[in-house]
Amino acid sequence: MKYLTLAARLLIGSLFVYASIHKIIDPADFAMSIRNYMIVPLSWSNILALTLPWIELGAGGFLILGVQTRPSALLTTGLLGIFLGAVIYAYSIGLDIDCGCFSSAASSTGRVSIYHLVRDSSLFLTSLFILVKDKGDFSIAGFPLLDPLRPKDA
Amino acid sequence: MKGLFSLICRALAITLAFSSIGLFANLASDTPIPWVYSLPKEITVGGVKVQLIDEREAVKFLNDPETVFIDSRKCDDYAKSHVKGAICLPPDDIEQRFPSIEALMPTEGRFILYCYGPECDMAERVSEFLAQMGHKNLMIMSSGFPAWLKAQFPIDGKGKEDAAIEDPEDFWREEEIADSDTEIALHRFCRCIDHFVVTWYRSPLLIWNPLQYA
Description:
The structure holds 2 protein chains of 2 kinds.
Chain A: H1 2-25, H2 27-37, H3 45-65, H4 69-93, H5 103-107, H6 114-133
Helix pairs in contact in A: 1-2, 1-3, 1-6, 2-3, 3-4, 4-6
Chain B: H1 2-28, E1 42-45, E2 48-53, H2 55-58, E3 67-71, H3 75-80, E4 81-83, E5 87-88, H4 94-101, E6 110-114, H5 122-132, E7 138-141, H6 144-150, E8 155-157, H7 160-163, H8 174-177, H9 181-200
Parallel strand pairs in B: 2-7, 3-5, 3-6, 6-7
Antiparallel strand pairs in B: 1-2, 4-8
């Protein structure tokens, strides 16, 4: 079981780290993306673009290292849970959110398929599995100085 | 219960810590962006200052005979719906279309351009062309047509919900998918969540891109 937990941690952690990198490199571009969807007030877009990718990076990195694993898994599970709900919804109504204003958008598939549903359900369950089953194995947190916040009874 | 509280507190601590890192990293960056975004007031295109306005400012000019709204989106989208009285002038075939609509565009007139939204540069490209053609009084409604629709300002053609009727695969019409007010409310809630998450998880590679848009 502990090897399975380790594999799950590495998978989810890597994906989160990977997803965060380009947003961290170019927060202005990510802020523009946020503004383009007009979900949050325009004035919030920059601060969201500056903070969210770092939270993703932190949660992902901690999962990989095994530092604060369960709180990180709580963050990733929460994010993936919201994401899964959106995909189920998008799939159920055939939502296509492409604005169509760029040539690249025209070549994208746009609509959500059963593939996305299966993939993201798997990711959510994987993250939930970490949250429930992780016992701190293969963790750098085994070194108390590296993880002073870790409860002593964990 | 205590364990759960501790777990949540530690998750919040991670959130706060990494949010702070992000904010400080921005301060240390060569090209920092302001924490609070505010729309720029104008840009210079082709040597002409172009005022950037939002839909609420733009609608004040809707009935002004000196003002022409220019839709820079694709003509297919223009045909579905557009700002009331707007003319279609997409940047990709602007040189072919311009002669046929030039008569509608007096040199001294005010032109308000728009496209799909803040990320779209089509209106800017058209404004550059118009600046080269000698037009000086240019404005860009940078929030784009979606914001105009959202504000329920006057349009020609069909709105988002009505336009969906033409596409049997488009389920934007709430009455088609919901039998009750509760289902409609759920539909709207899910739509908000969907947009939020899609924005959050936008990624350059499709493998991690939830709705596979580029």
